[in-house]
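User: Mind token order:
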Amino acid sequence: MAEPDFGPMHGQALLSRNENPYGPAPSAIRAVNESAQMGCYYADRGQRRLRDMIAERHNVSPQMVVIGSGSTEILCAIALAWGRQGSVLGAELFWDTTLLYGERQGVQSVRVPLATDMNLDLDAMEAAVSDETSLIQICNPNNPTGVLIPAADLRAFASKVKGKATLLVDEAYNELTDNPDDNTMIDLVRAGEDVIVCRTFSKIYGMAGMRVGYAITSEENAQRIRGHLMSFGGNISGVAAAIACYNDHGFLDRSRAMVLEGREMIMDAVAKAGLTALPTQTNFVYVKVPDADAVRAAMAERGISIRGAYGKWTQYSRVSTGMLEDVSRYASALPEIIDGMRA
């Protein structure tokens, strides 16, 4: 039997990519089906409608919203636009795929070690800001650790670096935190600060493969970002789906509930295995294990896909919440695998 082109392979528990398999929302799927016959047309008018919806929710002007092919395209554009004016400052461990893209294009970066609790060391990051720094990039909650910087701490940091560099906050997982409205930095954008906030439809909306993301920032910054985007108008299916489900609160509540239930199952398994994990407010858990790559290999033998080590952090293993039956497979396997490694 041929393997499917998309999603998990036959019999695989796919828990390695922070996807939300409870999406897309039924409202989004209906919109995709209805818009498919319009696939011969460009999607820019629909993209403008989505932009206006986002602007209205967050009480900003439409010109302060940038839509991209996932937040990835926007983050790559920011890396290029600001990286050509100076260096980009970030933590030693965060979702740096887009910064690595910038580095391949000649962007210079400065990395700051994490604090002892595996959170971002904001004091050290402030100290690392120099006259050469053009951008400070933060992922909150962080990926792969899942740790959330308290909103008050991040706002205090923003105040300290004000006027020294643009602050970029990647809020891909914001809607999964306990208090999304309190944890966002969009209020700093509304207040006129030099801040960029990026969001995505890939996580809570379950639209990772449909590639829709956005940034909210000043009109000046937004124009600068648009000048470095590579796509035009978005894809009609993704835009139609995003419009349809953006305010689908019933789906969003269910999506969040499924993530929380899966997360609790993982944390219970971690405790049962005699392990610990970092506190998380995302759809993944960073578990401290004897050997992350060995755990990944043992899980793979059982048809369960999780992440291995990230660089030097060989004793931390990231597992995503997914379909609850798949999380259950992980939860059953983890204590057995750890017991075998200890034997």
